[in-house]
TrEMBL record:
Binds 1 S-adenosyl-L-methionine per subunit. S-adenosyl-L-methionine binds at residues 43-45, 96, 145-147. This is 7-carboxy-7-deazaguanine synthase. Homodimer. Its cofactor is S-adenosyl-L-methionine; Mg(2+); [4Fe-4S] cluster. Mg(2+) binds at residue 46. It is an enzyme of class 4 (lyase). Catalyzes the complex heterocyclic radical-mediated conversion of 6-carboxy-5,6,7,8-tetrahydropterin (CPH4) to 7-carboxy-7-deazaguanine (CDG), a step common to the biosynthetic pathways of all 7-deazapurine-containing compounds. The lineage of its organism: Bacteria, Pseudomonadati, Pseudomonadota, Alphaproteobacteria, Sphingomonadales. Its EC number is 4.3.99.3. It comes from Novosphingobium jiangmenense. [4Fe-4S] cluster binds at residues 37, 41, 44.
């Protein structure tokens, strides 16, 4: 069983779109969004995957979501079948934090590979959860997005040193840091130094769910990236579709 997010009540969030962020930005992909997260970022743009009624952890929108309307449990074979209705040769598994469901994900991806052995598997993760051993060999790419102090999470939950070191050594992993303020940059530089993250595998991305905010932050963030030898990624899907589910 996998717990997915929904686009509308009862409708699992499986969709085709251009990958909007990171090293694969612009690539046509099929996406599946899993529900649940082990963190609680103040600016999370998918709070409907975790901030259910009764969860009072701080969020800038202060919204709470009905679990029954925003989650759906499906058998691995049913999720695989939904994904196979889409023709893209790349799958992006996102959330929430998808690695919380590693064992079930491994079974689902194994089913996909029977029909489409060449399907490229990309996972978006907050970088705190070890990859289930059955899932690990099936994954081509990890987009790892460690959460900085401005996310509001306790550091000991958000930054797990042995996990960060493992990602830094894994050539399949690309770091993608969400940046809201110039003060975030020193924190990123310290993490890069401590864990040995290669410049080529380090992306900075503006925080924002509106085109205007992304543009404003991109102006200074792109300059900083250039100066520091880091990579920059925009959030293409926000410019194209706004902050909407299933895009
Ligand atoms: N088009 C598109 N690209 C994305 N890349 C990462 C996403 C995410 O929500 O994790 C995402 C998303 O939601 N949509
Ligand atoms: S780790 Fe990602 S899904 Fe989880 S709360 Fe933070 S931004 Fe949202
Ligand atoms: Mg997103």
């Amino acid at each position: 069983m996998l717990t997915l997010a929904t686009v509308n009540p009862g409708e699992p969030e499986v969709f085709s779109s251009l990958q909007g962020e990171g090293p694969s930005m612009g690539r046509p992909s099929v996406f599946v969004r899993l529900s649940r997260c082990n963190l609680a970022c103040r600016w999370c743009d998918t709070a409907y995957t975790w901030r259910f009624t009764g969860d009072n952890r701080p969020h800038r929108d202060e919204v709470a979501f009905e679990r029954g309307e925003n989650q759906i449990g499906l058998a691995e074979a049913d999720v695989a079948a939904l994904i196979l209705l889409h023709e893209e040769d790349r799958l992006v598994i996102t959330g929430g934090e998808p690695l919380l469901q590693g064992a079930a994900l491994a079974r689902m991806v194994a089913l996909l590979k029977v029909t489409r052995p060449a399907l490229h598997i990309e996972i978006e993760t907050n970088g705190t959860v070890a990859v289930h051993p059955d899932l690990d060999p099936l994954v081509d790419q990890f987009n790892v997005s460690p959460k900085l102090a401005h996310s509001g999470n306790p550091t000991e939950l958000a930054l797990v040193p042995e996990r960060l070191e493992a990602w830094a050594r894994d050539p399949r992993a690309w770091f993608k840091f969400v940046v809201a303020n110039a003060s975030d940059l020193a924190e990123i530089a310290a993490l890069q130094e401590r864990h040995g993250i290669a410049d080529d595998h380090l992306f900075v991305m503006p925080e924002g769910t509106a085109s205007s905010i992304l543009r404003e932050r991109s102006r200074w963030l792109a300059e900083e990236a250039l100066e520091r030898g880091w990579r920059f990624t925009d959030r293409l899907h926000i410019h194209l579709y706004g902050d909407t589910r299933g895009t």
